[in-house]
Amino acid sequence: MYHGAATQLPGATTGADWVDDTLLSGSSDDVCLVLDREIDRSTLRRAVRDCEATLTQAGLRAGGTAALRLPPSLAYVVHLLAVWRLGAQAALLDHRLTAPETERALETAAPQLLISTAKSAGALRGFHQVDVDLTPYPGRPAATGHLLLQLSSGTTGPSKAIGRTAASLTAELDSYARIDGMPGPGGRLVALSSLTHTYGLIGGLLHSLHNNVRFTLPARTTPAGVMDTVLAHPAPTLLMGVPAQFTLLGSVAEPPRMPQLVQALSGGGRTRPELAATFADRFSAPLGDCYGMTETGVIATDMSGAMRPATGWAAPGVRVRVDEGELLVAAPESPYLADHLGDRPSGRWADGWLRTRDAGEMDDVTGLITVRGRLDSQVSVRGLKVDLSEVEDTLTALPGVREAVVLYGDGINAYVELEAATTLAGIEEALGRQLADFKLPRRWYVMPKLPRTVTGKPLQDQDALRAAAERDGYTR
Question: What pLDDT, in 10s, does the model give residues 444-453?
């Protein structure tokens, strides 16, 4: 748990003014949310103010912290905006966390109020109808002036407490608004991504509220449910999701014609070029790329999807440079709460630059950025350098491989999810034709489904992956 007196930071929480001016301004009868019904701005403003009164009665005050653990729902949107409008800090917890994970997150956030629900509908629901529970929690006033508190997904290690100020969020909203291809007034955004995490929250929900875009959640996130949602309204539509969701959509052999689908955007992981090509061919819409991180939000995009394997160009207003093969992003202050509180400094931020720990390069002439993978993906095998990202990308591109994770332990280990008719022997033979012997996996773990984080990314934890393979698949 973090300790220390509250610190006022540049761009600190500004409460009602920030919410009203940045997110809720606009004509009262404009439809801003579409779930099971259309919700206009007047209705949303009224719901937020009513919720403020309820939160005040529960003891939340300006300078306090509220933890939200709700599935995507009208209740989630209303309570988030109400917390901010009160001048309190919102700590977002994914509703899919286990009880022990939730307790650890609450220790870190130390809220005064937990906003949660006892149960929600199944995993394939795009939005939920929930009854909200308000539980006083033995926390403390917000230790910093950050508006938003998030925990990184922790795919490669323990999660980190990350704070975003109103100024930081506003700057990211400005970046998204200036990206050619993002929906503007009169447009529609259909979101499949988690609203607890940066990509879906800021690029999806907050961008839509800020730019008078119809933010829409499908009733079901199955391919049929998503396509029905796209077809339900004629407005030009951007579909936002993660690679695994676009893989499912790309498996639809003959989708209906959807002229309103003008753009799709994939984030939260690498999108294979062949997946993008299949999607574009079947849906007649480009599948673009969005690269970012919890600490900074959006960093680079290629809305056309035509530049793969390059990632894209720096988002408007975002400065990127490369230092000894590592991508660095300009940040006016550290996003890590530990740095602000003098507790376990991260070592990731210095002199206005944040180290992403992603390997990459940037073309000096065009500014095109290529993300190569994590820096720790560079390993030595028999004295020879191997980039695990290269092995993983080559493996994943093979016909018959649905997903793959390549890690290094007692050698190169491959964790794979194969098509039903595909044999491991065939994959090994095909990979051996494309990579040198020293780059080939020493051990293989095959399973019907790779474990994923709550954000949909393939898990990078060796122990969890091996346990899943031993439980559900086989090893060799």
Answer: 999 898 888 7
